């Protein structure tokens, strides 16, 4: 039995794609290699393009794999994910990384098991025609890896024609799962590569989503996270031709017996409807938590980012959310040092953060992505300035997060138990409805259960508690 290991970079969408890759490989009889088991037979790197850092880490990892190939010419290296949707990247891999065996993109994940089989067939054919190389055409010669180009299987599509349903997924947790509801993005924020790597928006048919969630629930899932780049613009059409928006889908999902929690990721402020805000109040299963990326606090920067809302509009949405659900937890994404950002603009971001008082925030240094409009803007911000602003922002955000968390001390929260803590023995981790991470002592057997935990302490990123 051949073993595989997947290295995943990037967002939940990629994590879930890796679960699908894993599901398909398991179905075909491959076995996931344990972390400790040494080199697997196959490595798959699922890449991310969102910032330059992710690109760099990928090429670093790829460089290291060359050593394994030198030890073991049967080793298989597969690369996929967002980076493969960019021509300049695949050109570089094709030219300079001869030890890569399979290249596929974000639109043909379902083809991967067949592509892998094709690779093994190509190798067998090459071996038969080239007996000199004692095996296959990429054999090691003079400590140098000869090209695997003759056997390489390489297929990328610009966009998906239709959504492929029914792919298996090997989930990380038994009690919770990601569920894709839509793919792609039409927003073209000026800094973002995603619309180029994930193609145009496509929504899954509501019945397909409902039946997937029903079977997940039958398999022990209590919580689903609905995934899409911009879930608020979900536009599903059912088999009778009826149109469904995102909120319709949430209500229908909440009728599924046994499902206890519904979350979603990510929503764009420009499409956040009053109907959805109302659903937070009306639908018990919809968690009191929203990730609502603001990106910047200055209307001027937002305009140049092509975000299609102003600072005022964003604050208005948050006000409405809090009016409807006073205890809703809110998190965000913020980019620091977008081209042309002045100190004044940045101050507005700090002020907005203070005003909203986010429970948590993901803060990013602006990273120019080749092919996006903002990468061509002339007024790029010097790295030093970006870093200095970034540090100030993180400090502000952390102070607020710590204060927000401290307010939980003394409360009793419903926690879905994720399992034993990776480091501290005897400790468990779980999440509250507000997506707060809670550490508490308890038996491993309650993993996957909903329990009451009294919050006894807090810090910037998590809560501590006592099982009731
Ligand atoms: N530079 C920095 N951050 C970025 N993001 C997207 N593109 C870039 C970029 N070029 C951030 C946004 C988005 C999150 C997923 O990544 O904040 O919401
Ligand atoms: Fe990127 Fe904007 Fe689409 Fe989000 S909404 S994926 S930031 S283009």
For this entry, give a set of tags.
binds iron/sulfur cluster; binds 5'-deoxyadenosine; alpha/beta; single chain; 468 residues; six-stranded parallel beta sheet
Can you describe this structure?
- The protein is an alpha/beta fold and 468 residues long.
- It has helices at 12-27, 52-71, 87-96, 112-129, 194-197, 206-218, 246-254, 274-282, 299-304, 311-324, 343-356, 373-376, 383-406; strands at 3-8, 31-32, 42-47, 76-81, 102-104, 140-141, 144-145, 153-155, 176-180, 182-183, 202-203, 223-227, 236-237, 243-244, 261-265, 289-291, 329-336, 360-365, 412-420, 427-432, 437-441, 450-458, 463-467.
- The chain has a 6-stranded parallel sheet with strand order 2-1-3-4-5-8, with helices on both faces. It has a 5-stranded mixed barrel with strand order 19-20-21-23-22. Strands 9-12-15 form a 3-stranded parallel sheet, with helices on both faces.
- Strand 19 (412-420) and strand 20 (427-432) form a beta hairpin.
- It is globular, with a radius of gyration of 24 Å.
- The chain starts with a strand and ends with a strand.
- The model is unreliable at 131-146 (pLDDT under 50).
- Bound molecules: 5'-deoxyadenosine and iron/sulfur cluster (SF4).
